[in-house]
């Protein structure tokens, strides 16, 4: 059924809760939260995952050096290693991930139409091509729109890393944008009351501010920007009072656990993602930058893979050990692959025609390989998977209505994954 959920006066519009403003928390724009929930009858089917941890390899990860290794001249110095999953091999730079491959699915038949970074990144996150006339929502924003937050005192989604190209909330209201955290080790700044400010004095100040704003909000509170600003401060206050804000403090973890994840920003971001999902946050993205290996691919890729390998294997193993992997979907994605043929700079160039990703937990098959490329990794040989197909698969795992049409404020119709169809990767 086609319907718009974006009108502020719509009776079915989910009630807004709150978020925090960047000036208050010092970590970027926090979303305002939704209190409503998607009824079971509205979902595309039974959800197999409650949360998603989305590990994004920014810059274009070489598939033939990682998830889809080849032999001969294409491989260069990269060797192939066996994994814990029968019949699945990986590149030698992912030895720890190879040991948990029996818990996931590798997808080796992805194909994109976008071969430039900004366009490819946008397409991967939204299922739509980058246009100058409209901004499309990321998957985390769609999840927030349909389902609201898993924890009403924490953000519905969080992004860890450099967000210069992240599409955020797109055409949805700003409350659906993720909380941006640049450095996972810094926690949230300015989230505690000042030392000389008691809770009673703070409450009195909030009451005074509310009374001063009441007349203005009575007249203009339904306007989008006014509501966003007002709800931002309400949400900041809610977060300050939440015991679950401790999720952002990684010093609570044992040093040995932090070492297992890797002491770099990506590894600690993966640990933060686990802590947030543990407390109900539905969508966490962690970025690892630097995969644009036009030159010196065989120097840069092993270093990047070491960070990915530590963080990913620790995360999957940790979730599995805590009994969380069944309802948490871990995704490894990138905007495109790299050319199987090595260039004159000992690098690999952009290659959207065929590349790979991986899925762990969240109801997907275990020890499974979906699709394949030919002997050189240049062409998809079996079960081509488009980018909208990837996002439709994630939407299905989350039980979202993938086929439901949502209207933008100016009446344009869009779906979560455009024309994408879920892959046959579920157990």
From TrEMBL:
InterPro entries xref list: Alkaline_phosphatase_core_sf, DUF1501
Domain of life of the source: Bacteria
Protein name: DUF1501 domain-containing protein
The species this protein was found in: Humisphaera borealis
């Amino acid at each position: 059924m086609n319907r718009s959920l974006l009108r502020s006066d719509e009776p079915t519009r989910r009630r807004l809760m709150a978020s925090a403003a960047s000036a208050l928390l010092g970590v970027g724009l926090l979303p305002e939260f939704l209190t409503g929930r998607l009824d079971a009858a509205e979902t595309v089917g039974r959800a197999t995952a409650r949360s998603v941890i989305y590990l994004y390899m920014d810059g274009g990860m070489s598939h033939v050096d990682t998830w889809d290794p080849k032999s001969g001249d294409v491989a260069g110095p990269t060797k192939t290693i066996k994994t814990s999953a029968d019949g699945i091999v990986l590149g030698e730079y992912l030895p720890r991930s190879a040991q948990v491959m029996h818990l996931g699915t590798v997808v080796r038949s992805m194909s994109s139409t976008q071969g430039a970074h900004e366009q490819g990144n946008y397409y991967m996150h939204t299922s739509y091509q980058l246009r100058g006339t409209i901004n499309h929502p990321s998957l985390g924003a769609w999840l927030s729109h349909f389902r609201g937050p898993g924890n009403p005192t924490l953000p519905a989604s969080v992004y860890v890393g450099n967000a210069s190209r992240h599409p955020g909330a797109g055409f949805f209201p700003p409350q659906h944008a993720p909380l941006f955290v640049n450095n996972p080790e810094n926690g949230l700044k300015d989230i505690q009351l000042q030392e000389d400010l008691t809770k009673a004095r703070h409450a009195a100040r909030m009451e005074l501010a509310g009374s001063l704003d009441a007349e203005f909000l009575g007249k203009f509170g339904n306007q989008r920007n006014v509501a966003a600003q007002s709800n931002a401060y309400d949400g900041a206050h809610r977060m300050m009072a939440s015991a679950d804000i401790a999720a952002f403090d990684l010093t609570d973890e044992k040093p040995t656990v932090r070492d297992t994840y890797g002491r770099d920003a990506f590894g600690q971001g993966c640990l933060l993602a686990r802590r947030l999902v543990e407390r109900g946050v539905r969508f966490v993205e962690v970025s690892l930058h630097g995969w644009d290996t036009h030159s010196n691919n065989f120097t840069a890729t092993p270093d990047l893979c070491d960070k990915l390998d530590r963080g990913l294997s620790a995360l999957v193993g940790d979730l599995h050990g805590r009994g969380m992997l069944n309802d948490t979907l871990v995704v490894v994605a990138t905007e495109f692959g790299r050319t199987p043929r090595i260039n004159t700079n000992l690098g690999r160039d952009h290659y959207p025609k065929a590349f790979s990703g991986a899925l762990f937990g969240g109801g997907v098959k275990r020890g499974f390989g979906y699709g394949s490329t030919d002997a050189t990794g240049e062409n998809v040989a079996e079960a081509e998977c488009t980018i909208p197909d990837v996002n439709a698969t994630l939407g299905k795992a989350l039980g979202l209505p993938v086929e439901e049409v949502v209207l933008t404020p100016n009446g344009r119709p869009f779906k979560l994954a455009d024309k994408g169809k879920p892959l046959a990767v579920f157990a």
